[in-house]
Design brief:
Elements: H1 2-14, E1 28-29, E2 38-40, E3 45-50, E4 56-62, H2 65-74, E5 104-109, E6 115-120, E7 126-136, E8 139-156, H3 158-161, H4 168-171, E9 177-184, E10 203-205, H5 215-228, E11 232-236, H6 250-254, H7 259-275, H8 278-308, H9 334-340, E12 350-354, H10 367-370, H11 373-381, E13 388-391, H12 411-420, H13 435-450, H14 452-455, E14 459-461, E15 464-468, H15 470-474, H16 479-493, E16 498-502, H17 508-511, E17 516-518, E18 533-535, E19 540-546, E20 553-559, E21 591-595, E22 604-608, E23 620-623, E24 626-630, E25 637-643
Parallel strand pairs: 2-8, 8-11, 8-12, 9-11, 12-13, 15-16, 15-17
Antiparallel strand pairs: 1-3, 3-6, 4-5, 4-7, 7-8, 9-10, 14-19, 18-21, 19-20, 20-25, 21-24, 22-25, 23-24
Helix pairs in contact: 1-8, 12-13
Length: 644
């Protein structure tokens, strides 16, 4: 009987989740509007909350301490008093001629759904404590110590969600910025929510609180705070391992014309429909209970057998309990529904987004179609076309993009690719327990360390410029993006040295540095006349860099060719088990005909590689402003140094 009661309680709980309550009995502000909140400057300040339907609500926005303290007394809020005799220091901000916020009073009636909302005029940034006060019936609720400044929402996966643990020793004791505020939570739901389900609260940036800040939002917030000299509010809703589609409006995902995307959406709708039906959920849970009983009986037999053989009894492993698909970890639009939609009336300056890695795996890999929908979704949700969108990626500012094949299992290629393009080579998915992998890492990283001057602070060298169609993407036009990818692939296959630059950053001064400009909207590939030539298979990729010092030019060669492993039984590629299964095929005889820039002279060609015991020096010749030579045989990565 107890088992049935617990089971029924579990099933019932599934169908009351996802709601803030149909008719709240008490007057309150929305959860995001709590003590210490930062309100966006220079935009209308919308304030909303919940209460008894039909009640008239009077809402006040004020910086007058008398009005604020009076409301605190009405609301029976305790006044914090520090009566300790211990020595302490508090950071405060001294504003010269601070803007004056005129006290405003607005009224609203709570609707049938129990919601009320008012909108105050825009205000200037200020470190002066601000109160939000709502009175309805015989109730008074107050939000204390609010500030007016810049507000950003941070979204994405673990890169954005990681805590500030790696900066504790350096930042913890000195991270005393009361004007920097932070709130974080994560949640997922299959439909848009009207209110945050988690218990949340804004925190001032203090040595005690800063350890809860995520590292990237903390650094971003402190930069804005110091540079703009205004209060800054950071809202972090990131969740590790999430996919791009969970950070989009469902309506935007539905608008994407792609078979895989439509199939995934349909499958997810079918999964959530099961959890919307109490009978199907009950049947699902009963089947799980039967599977558990079966596993227990089988386990008893295994224990008896182990005991008879004098062996250690095995652990009991029960089947995993079915999880509610409606609140999955990273479903389409799931985190957007549960974290963004509940606060869509809050004014923001922008969104900081850090995601992309997880869309290289699993079932949904159409990130080139999902990614443009992220900023569109945020702007539509907050009803603000001026909402800024900033993206983070794991490469340095002036380095070229890599439009090539990337497989985590190919350890040598992964390190070589990142090193050649000036990134920070990290074995994020590395098998450090594998002796073969450790040997590869050690050899390649030692090579990079020995030749540090080739990688640290270098700059890309290119003869052509491929424009990334960011203007069109911001307007929701995706066709130029497909053209961009095809052009990039052809440039790589033809071994043309090229850079990538967003078209909205292409100034006449920048364009003048290149022999050819390639625009995906109205351009085509250059003829190749006058460019450097590399007579090599498409599996060999080439790029060029110039070290920070001197007049040297370095040609980086990454060889992707290998003997492929047999496909898996399901027909999918076999990623292998690390370096032991990579089976790269050496490349030899690649002919180089490099156009020397004006003023560059070459007296020596030196070829180095992690696989070489010592540098090699191929013969070279000069013809019509070109230097020509044949690359020696190498396995995965080699650098040809054109020394003056």
């Amino acid at each position: 009987m107890l088992k049935q009661t617990l089971f029924l309680s579990f099933v019932l709980a599934l169908f009351v989740s996802g709601s803030h309550g149909e008719s709240p009995e008490s007057l309150r502000f929305a959860k995001i509007l709590s003590d210490n909140v930062v309100l966006q400057q220079d935009k209308p300040i919308t304030v909303w909350g919940w209460g008894k339907p039909g009640t008239q609500v009077e809402v006040t926005l004020t910086q007058d301490a008398t009005t604020g303290h009076k409301a605190e007394t009405e609301a029976d809020l305790e006044t914090k008093q520090d009566e300790s005799d211990d020595y302490s220091v508090s950071v405060r901000y001294l504003e010269k001629n601070p803007p004056r916020l005129q006290e405003k009073n607005l009224s609203a009636q709570i609707d049938k759904q129990g919601r009320w909302s008012v909108s105050f005029p825009p205000a200037k940034a200020s470190f002066k404590p601000t109160w939000l006060i709502a009175r309805g019936g015989d109730e008074t609720v107050v939000v204390r110590n609010a500030l007016i400044g810049e507000v950003w929402i941070c979204a994405g996966q673990s890169n954005m969600g990681w805590s500030n643990f790696n900066r504790k020793a350096r930042e913890g004791a000195s991270a005393d910025f009361p004007g920097l505020r932070y709130v974080a939570w994560e949640d997922s739901w299959y439909k848009p929510l009207d209110e945050v389900r988690n218990k949340i609260g804004w925190k001032e940036c203090t040595p005690e609180n800063t350890q809860r800040f995520s590292a990237v939002p903390y650094l971003f917030g402190t930069f804005l705070h110091r540079y703009l000299k205004v209060p800054v509010g950071i809202i972090n809703v990131a969740r590790g391992g999430t996919l791009g589609q969970t950070w989009c409006l469902r309506s935007e995902l539905k608008s994407i014309d792609d078979k895989i995307i439509k199939t995934v959406l349909a499958d997810y709708d079918a999964e959530t429909a099961v959890w919307d039906d109490p009978k199907q959920v009950a049947a699902l849970m009963k089947q799980w209970e039967r599977d558990c009983d079966k596993a227990k009986k089988e386990h008893e037999g295994k224990i008896a057998k182990a005991k008879a053989e004098g062996k250690k009894p095995p652990r009991l492993r029960l089947p995993k309990q079915p999880g509610d698909a409606r609140s999955a970890w990273s479903p389409p639009a799931g985190l957007f529904n549960a974290t963004v939609m509940p606060i869509r009336d809050l004014a923001l300056r922008g969104v900081l987004y850090y995601q992309g890695e997880n869309n290289n795996f699993m079932r949904w890999t159409r990130y080139e179609r999902t990614f443009p929908k992220v900023p569109v979704s945020f702007r539509k949700a907050f009803r603000d076309a001026t909402l800024q969108a900033r993206y983070l990626r794991g490469a340095f500012f002036d380095k070229p993009f890599t439009i090539g094949k990337y497989e985590g299992a190919r350890t040598r290629v992964a390190i070589a690719e990142l090193a050649a393009n000036g990134g920070a080579p990290m074995g994020f998915y590395a098998r450090f327990s594998d002796p073969a992998a450790r040997e590869v890492f050690a050899r390649y990283y030692q090579f990079i360390h020995r030749n540090d001057n080739l990688f640290r602070g270098n700059s890309p060298y290119a003869e052509a410029l491929l424009l990334f169609p960011r203007k069109a993407i911001r307007q929701g036009t995706l066709e130029p993006l497909d053209v961009f990818r095809k052009l990039g692939r052809k440039l790589l296959d033809r071994h043309i040295l090229f850079d990538v630059l967003p078209d909205d950053l292409a100034t006449p001064e920048i364009l003048a540095k290149y022999q050819a400009k390639i625009d995906p909207i109205r351009g085509s590939l250059p003829s190749g006349v006058g460019f450097s030539r590399f007579d090599a298979p498409p599996t060999l990729r080439v790029c060029a860099n110039r070290p920070a010092k001197g007049n040297e030019i370095d040609l980086h060669f990454v060889n992707y060719d290998r003997d492929e492993l047999p496909k898996r039984a399901n027909g999918k590629p076999n990623p292998g088990r690390g370096p032991a299964d990579e089976r790269p095929k050496a490349v030899s005889g690649a002919e180089v005909s490099f156009v020397l820039p004006a003023g560059v002279k070459v007296s020596e060609v030196e070829v180095i590689s992690p696989e070489y015991e010592k540098p090699l020096h191929p013969d070279f010749r000069f013809t019509d402003g070109r230097i020509s030579f044949t690359m020696p045989k190498f396995l995965v990565y080699a650098v040809a140094r054109l020394k003056p």
